[in-house]
Specification:
Helices cover about 30% and strands about 15% of the residues. The protein is α/β, with parallel strands linked by helices and about 350 residues long. The strands form three sheets. Strands 7-4-8-1-9-10-2-11 form an eight-stranded mixed β-sheet, with helices on both faces.
Length: about 350
């Protein structure tokens, strides 16, 4: 991994705003300058300032799928901490799309509404090809030299589930079309083992109690209704809905039908975080010593940031590190390296 890169300081020019917004922004700018004078960095950036008269979309379609928390007339500036610390992380892993195939694509209207209202990493990269080693990097912080979608290449290594258990945090893996908890087959219908990294770790697949925490996606709806959502919920759609075998439009339509259940839950509203990421792109562009393509990453939190595009280069290792840092977890794999910084402007 290469060392951290310093993001270029953007312009701080302010547009003309109506009276109320102008007073708020002026106060924020003064506070920011004061902090800089005391040795603290000024955090008010051009990408975090709403345009003149801007409001978040309140069309009927958006209102039916995106919660009102993000529809205020003055979006929050930057990644300000909300009233509740993060208690629940939902991670949805999609498949095989570059950034430009999703962001700005008219075939993905729901994803682009989320992207415009919440936060997007503009320089986020997968680590390699094909799918499986990217899933292992997201869950275990390493690819272990695996360069295929093998279904018998199990590893005996520390992973995120181990770190969560050690910290007293709960977890589940929700897999669409998984026929039953702890199903160990390579495929069933549109479920594929290669997209279920939990079952590549021997201390999960060989432990019946832990293995049963890998369960069909339908269980998430029941867990939300019963207010029994784990601290960490990994979600893998099936091969159609994750865009692997399906189209961008099919994946977007599935997310539009599925994500609102998460955003309406108390687990998300009261200290929740939803992350949507793609495992790999179709190119080999990269950063930070990896090259799996530039892929989209959306961060959706009731506490913000809102309407923000991060320019900071990051990879799957940084996403895993961000989850570890949220709860002070033991770092696993390569996330302990000095070049892995997490996602400090997106997830706090």
């Amino acid at each position: 991994m290469m060392g951290r890169r310093r993001a270029r300081r953007p312009s701080r020019r302010l547009a003309k705003f109506p009276g109320g917004q102008r007073h708020v922004l002026t106060a924020l700018l003064v506070a920011s300058i004061a902090l800089a004078g005391c040795g603290g960095p000024a955090q008010l950036t051009a990408t975090q300032i709403p345009t003149a008269g801007a409001t978040i979309s309140t069309t009927a379609a958006a209102s039916s799928t995106i919660p009102p928390a993000a529809q205020g007339s003055t979006p929050a500036v930057g990644a300000s901490p909300g009233p509740n610390p993060v208690q629940h992380v939902f991670l949805i892993v999609m498949e095989n799309k570059e950034y430009d195939q999703i962001i700005g694509n008219a075939s993905a209207p729901y994803l682009n509404r989320l992207a415009s209202q919440y936060a997007v990493a503009d320089q986020y990269y997968a680590v390699t090809h094909p799918s499986l080693p990217n899933y292992l990097a997201l869950f275990g912080g390493d690819t272990y030299g695996i360069r295929s979608d093998c279904t018998d290449c199990f590893v005996n290594q520390p992973n995120l589930a181990d770190a969560l258990d050690a910290a007293g945090k709960t977890w589940k893996s929700y897999q669409e079309d998984l026929p039953s908890p702890c199903f160990l087959g390579a495929q069933s219908g549109e479920y594929a083992l290669k997209h279920d990294p939990f079952l590549y770790y021997q201390d999960i697949r060989d432990n019946p109690a832990r293995c049963r925490q890998v369960m069909p996606l339908t269980q998430l709806t029941a867990d939300i209704a019963a207010n029994q959502v784990p601290n960490f919920a990994w979600i893998t759609p099936n091969l159609i809905h994750d865009m692997h075998d399906g189209t961008v439009a099919q994946g977007d339509a599935w997310l539009a039908s599925f994500v609102p259940t998460i955003l309406a839950s108390s687990a998300w509203k009261d200290g929740g975080l939803l992350v949507i990421v793609w495992d790999e792109g179709s190119s080999s562009v990269g950063c930070c010593g990896v090259s799996g393509g530039r892929v989209p990453l959306l961060v959706i939190s009731p506490n913000g940031p809102f309407g923000y595009h991060s320019p900071v280069p990051a990879t799957h290792y940084d996403l895993l590190r961000a989850v570890e840092d949220l709860w002070g977890l033991r770092e696993v794999g390569l996330t302990a390296g000095s070049g892995v910084q997490g996602l400090p402007d997106l997830i706090k």
